[in-house]
Amino acid sequence: MSIEQLPPPTQTRLRSTQILTSFTQIVSELLQNSLDANPQRVDVGVDCEEWECWASDDGVGISREALSVIGQGQDVGRYNTSKCYAADTINALETFGFRGEALASIADLSCLEICSRTARSKDTWSVIVKGGKNLYNGSAVRWRRESKGTTVHVRDAFYNLPVRRRSHPPPARILEQIRHDLEVYALIFPSVSFSFRNLRSQRGAGSSRDSTWHIPKASDIEVIDLVSGDMKLNGFISLAGAPSKMYQFLYVNKYHLSQCDLHRVIDSIFAASSFYRDVISRRSPRKGEKRPVYVLNLTMPPERIDNCLEPTKSAIHIQDMRAVSTFLASAIQGFLASHGYSGEAANSEPPQKKRKIQGQQRNDDFELSGATTDPVRRTPPPCIDLNHDSKILKWKDDRTGQTFLIDSRTGNTFAQALAQPKEMNLRLSDYREERRTLSSQTTIPEEGSIRASPPDWLIEALKGGRQTESLYPSHRFERSDLRRAEVIGQVDCKFVACLIRGTANPLDCESPVTEHNTWLSPVQSRLILLDQHAADERIRVERFLKELCQGFLDNGKYGKNGIKVHDLVPPMPLLLTRHEGLKLATSRDLQQFFEGWGIRFSRLSDVETNGTEPGANSKDAHDYLQVLVQCIPRVISDKLTTKDELRNLVKAILGRPVPVISGLNDNNNIPDTSGDNCADEFSWLSGLRFCPQELIDLINSKACRGAIMFNDSLNIEQCENLVSQLSETVFPFQCAHGR
């Protein structure tokens, strides 16, 4: 078998796909090129849905001759850079760019337009390259500049790699990734002004949310500026923690590092100190463990690092990793010691962990510098002696004041309040033997014989369970409880605290009072926490379902118009199989069912007559055809017009047997909601059983996406309004997802 060289176009295409793996990386490469031009301002704009982005800076600019070299395309425009280094200094890089491949790779995978002007130039020059082919080279028309600088505009990214596009996350996620990358560069280049624009929101097709992360206050940070030999560490560390590691920024020579061993060095030192415990004492008990927040840049001679490992330059090899780790660890320990965060947590129990009874005292063989205080002394639990029979021992927790009974052999514990007095000092050997041993004379009872009574140990165990359950009385909450609830306020920007007082009459309860469902007397009250997101989600989902189902029930009856629809101008084409299209065109029951739920088609008669899509010749018949959707339900029109939601809904309904659809269209099966039958505010529920599950899923999704979220601040009036609306729903204690 002979070995042949790949053609140059194939070589460049393969290399480009390896250099640029995502839309986020394209934006990152443009940012790095702008920062290498020593700018004072960098502007970035993106439209993730159209695969479009641009970066503009006021740096030194690119000359017309250099633009002509880039515009040659294919392999000629590759490996041309303004940051040239000698072969023996490839590891002594001080700029982001050095390969000369970024712009050439972008030109291979998209439509690239570069407009630039230098300080000596009298005009702005432009070059446009797509797929490695030069489309234009001359004076700029669109991005003309009055001063020096460069604008790089990328359109139709990955147009020739559809699989690469489909592998990308949703546009909202891509937008957040780009925003995070912009934060990474903005933190390490404080002298550069950055701006970020979501072109999609400016065009009126979406919304842009501001970044939720802000630099901590000056009073909450400690500035770091340390030197050790030829290494320097500067930046800051926050005195307040964060719920995740996304606010940890570590750089080496201004290269941002992804999570690596250096991050773990910092985390281990923080975890071994009292920093976590001090932060936890000030936080809500429902929040997770806090993580340190820091922005640190480690500067060292460039020849001691290697950042040629991957195109993103986020993985770096360091020549003397031990020295760097030691320097970084000493800096973190010095910060913790200066603020009184000793290393005592290494010898104490982690917060909110289950207590363990240990047979031997653990001795830690390390000690962190700066530890100045001893761990809080607690009464140790009794040691377990494995060489003697079991005995019941008492142990009191000094923190909670509770007394526990401990099996000295197994370590099993249970609260003294749940134990019988006579069991205090009993030996457990006979008890365990009785509980674990089965009689050898046990026989299987014959049919018709009296069932043997359960063993004594099982009876005692069940009694203990009932006794424990009785300590926590149950109560079934009703909508009437919410109507008389007294709103206290918002808790932790996640919950609404309410006080439900008892009623003097148990007949006021909506459900009967049983031994498992108690009613609250006037002197009793309950403090409850309502999930603000789930509550608002429940309100929204029932409002949407009511509009949809009530419109279905009223469709064509008593002069009402049924479901409110949104007209599609022009009609939206849907691609269906020939079988599905003919099934829809020839079945009046299917058409009536779609119309009942607000979905109407146009020109179905052409499909029925010719067996082809509207406007096509019958000779051009294929296995697929298009149908035109004229209108859709207004309540979920925004969901149905995104991606393939409408197509998936139509295909799901067409997949059902026609007799089932015919039965749903039967007027005798649809409840009458006229006259007195409309008096019930929940009459729309009778139409819910006819609603396709796909429509319900879309409504649930819309209700969830637009509901009040965690960390949304609510005043007392908004909390009261939320509880009041929740009390008017059918299922106030069930979220849209059925939980």
TrEMBL record:
Domain of life: Eukaryota
Domain MutL C-terminal dimerisation: 487-714
Gene Ontology CC entries for this record: mismatch repair complex
InterPro entries linked: DNA_mismatch_repair_CS, DNA_mismatch_S5_2-like, HATPase_C_sf, MutL/Mlh/PMS, MutL/Mlh/Pms-like, MutL_C, MutL_C_dimsub, MutL_C_sf
One record GO biological process: mismatch repair
Gene3D superfamilies per record: 3.30.230.10, Histidine kinase-like ATPase, C-terminal domain, MutL, C-terminal domain, dimerisation subdomain
Record Pfam families: DNA_mis_repair, HATPase_c_3
GO molecular function: ATP binding; ATP hydrolysis activity; ATP-dependent DNA damage sensor activity; mismatched DNA binding
Entry similarity comment: Belongs to the DNA mismatch repair MutL/HexB family.
PANTHER family linked: DNA MISMATCH REPAIR PROTEIN MLH, PMS, MUTL (PTHR10073), DNA MISMATCH REPAIR PROTEIN MLH3 (PTHR10073:SF47)
Name by which UniProt lists this protein: MutL C-terminal dimerisation domain-containing protein
Organism phylogeny: Eukaryota, Fungi, Dikarya, Basidiomycota, Agaricomycotina
